[in-house]
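Annotated sample (chain length 525).
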Amino acid sequence: MRREGPLEFHRRPFFSALLIAVLAAVPLPKLAGADASCGSLTALTIPQVRITNATDVPAGPFVAPGSTRALATPLFCRVEGVASPSSDSSIGFEIWMPPPHAWNGRFQAVGTTGFLGAIEYGDMAAALSRGYAVAGSDAGHAGGELKFADGHPEKIIDWSYRAIHVVTDLAKLVVRSYEGRHPDFTYFFGCNTGGHQALSEAQRYPGDFDGIVAGAPANDRINEIVAYQHVWRASHDDGGRNILPAEKLHLLGQAVVKACDRLDGVQDGVLENPLQCRFDPETLECGAGGSTSCLTSTELAAVKKIYEGPHNARTGEQIFPGWPFGSESAGPTATQGQGWRQIIDLPQPRRTEFWNYFVFNNPSWEWRTFDFDRDLEYANRKVGYVSAIDHDLSAFKRSGGKLLLYAGWSDPILPGGDPIHYYDEVTRAMGGRDATESFARLFMMPGVGHCSGGPGPDTIDPITAIEAWVEKAIAPDKLIATKVESGKVVRERPLCVYPRVAKYSGSGSTDVAANFSCQMAEIKN
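Output written by the structure step:
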């Protein structure tokens, strides 16, 4: 356990000078525990921070701003405010805290989704219901459009990594002031962009959290967006017509399942380890003729390009992993809107606005002119900090931090090969599997989409696992994933620490996790 006492802060090289100054200026007894009402927190003076509201919220349904869905929450103190670490920053944040007598001593920060500037209230409510004090932010802007970045480099920095760190710093102070003591343990949880932010924290601010959960961590952000260009170009003709309609993706997905489903000893419509699948898409080729039961030569060429992923045309270097078998059309029907359709059925490549507003600062920039060598190199020079791809996590390990990563094998937004590539590079940088698994573990989720969804068991509890690892030194050797339909668990399966996979014992129900064990699998990247 690492407690955060004032004398400890100077030994944490990444801790902000802002909060150190605040702690010196605000004596602990002045606003603490039983002497601190929720409303009194507006009196806290924090440099570059404005607390706009602090209110007790009664137990019951809570409807978050901009939502019509009620969240069930216990009694809590809701603090709202704005942080401005730069002259062009405006980071909206909220901090929710149980009454001191109900607090479990833990603090959690939650991440955001995509480029959306909005607080993840559902994740905050989940943490609060567990007894946590919790903080979330809008990452420094409002709305989902990427125009916020145009001419605002400080806002790009806020979204990329600064907002989480700043809000974490100030939230710890507010929690101390209200609860009467520092958190015993600090955690971060995020999926999607939240997973990206999680890895950014481990790399840039290794002392912020004791435990970090990173789901679908899109941390190689620039190359991922390049891959969307590649997929769209591969799947559309010169006139912009989609040459891979839903029925062809469904055909492809079903053929993959038929060829590789039984490799794990269980026929359940899910590939346990897509890297072992040796499906040949050419078996579906039917030449130039049109048919819903085969792929034309043009369609086959497009499919192969998507599986291969983007390469630099000049050097031949792989830019980003291709999409794995099992991600084509996740589901038993062609109309579920899953799989590659999410990145193909678009009028232009996904996240094109990134190039307009983050890179070229030109709303009229024509995406068809994108060059996979020149423009990628320019983007990395200009905004390379947007990505979080440092493989050396030594500082995080030395701080005692624990990192739990998870990702879906059927994820059409972030292909499963990318988190595996990052974890493999971390393993090499940290000196091997044993050294890495002592503080960081990756769990791949067969048949699962982006953070959730897909035909595989997609419900897990990584928070309990990271708590046990941080607080009791019990490292997770597996997570139990469930598939819930109509409120009932219809299937469960163990998720194993990569590169291990779940193996069926040969007896008992294949929907019961106890009938599987985790074993090493041959992984060929």
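Annotation: Residues 184-218+398-491 form one domain.
Annotation: Residues 153-179 form the longest helix (27 residues).
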